From TrEMBL:
Protein name as catalogued: N-methyl-L-tryptophan oxidase
Keyword Flavoprotein in annotation: yes
Pfam families xref list: DAO (PF01266)
Cofactor (UniProt): FAD
Limits of the FAD dependent oxidoreductase domain: 4-356
Source domain of life: Bacteria
Record InterPro entries: FAD-dep_OxRdtase, FAD/NAD-bd_sf, MTOX
Amino acid sequence: MDADFAVIGLGAMGSMTAWQLARAGASVIGFEQYGLGHDRGASAGESRLFRMAYHEGAAYVPLLRRARELWQDLSELSGQRLFHPTGCLSIGRPELPQMRNVLASVDEHGLDHEVLDPEQLAARYPQHLVHDGEIGILDSGGGVLRPEPAVLAACAQAREHGARLLPRTRVTAVRYEDDRVRITAGGTEYTARTVIFTAGPWSEQLLPDLAPHLTVRPLVLTWFAPAGDPADYAEDRFPAFIRDTEGVHLFGVPVLDGMSVKTGFADVFGDLPDAEAYTRDLDERRLRPVGEAVRRFLPGLHPDPLRYAVYMEGYTPDRTAVVDRLPGTDRALVLAGFSGHGFKMAPAFGRIAAELALHGGTDLDLTSMSATRFPAPAA
């Protein structure tokens, strides 16, 4: 037996899972088809938002609390600044479902926050052009994560605790037996007691039964230069933000590279037939709606992006991840379909995966993330 646990895919979820398993004393082997910290999947982009007051619902707050503690833990262990506590500012009309969820999060869980009326919002954060009736909710526990260093730090911690990680080693077959799993990767066969699938947008290739419920979509991020002093958009003056105005969902982070503000839209760039259809190229015309949103809502930025980058993510129909045992076998776990909002919770999901693998359960409610919640495909 090569290891107790094999982890397939070493992006955010896989690296955190390998770290937590190895930290608990388990023997771990991990496979990654590209280099560690690569820029193709969902664990890249130089910065990612962290939010405690959650647009997707207050039920996520316990996960987010655990994740924030583990982000701090990983930062201290690695000696790197992986989390920037800028706060996260939600902007929109208070009656919007997203804003109601943010308010429910802070009310139900007693989160540190501040509600800004339109006048206060415009005065404190003049970088944003406030529309009639819009308020701001400043989530004091929010901030910005650095994804590539975070993945590398988790991999380094896993290795420090004895994990064997194999970059540039693509898994081509997984076969289950009564007492083990056989994994073919890079032309070599390996065995483990349990396999954990954390393959991001490649999950549908490895998990055919789950594939009908997973869709691969490009994540497109853009960077814009301030017309004036970049210091006006520094993290001490310009929190990470999410804005929902007139049907536009725009998010962004402060200047971290000394010259540009990163922004992005949620999944509006269509679907990919599969992960192999990924391309870094994008027709410039498809970026124009982002530039138009920047012109309308962030008038102090040049509305033409300095650069853009394309990544990938796997989505489920209900935009809720699958975190569960794989149906049909007791030798596999799956973490997939995080639908563009999983990275911030990655260390918590890594801990959960380790608890499921080692102890068969976790103290957090994963009912909504069941692998069997989807209807069976029609005959």
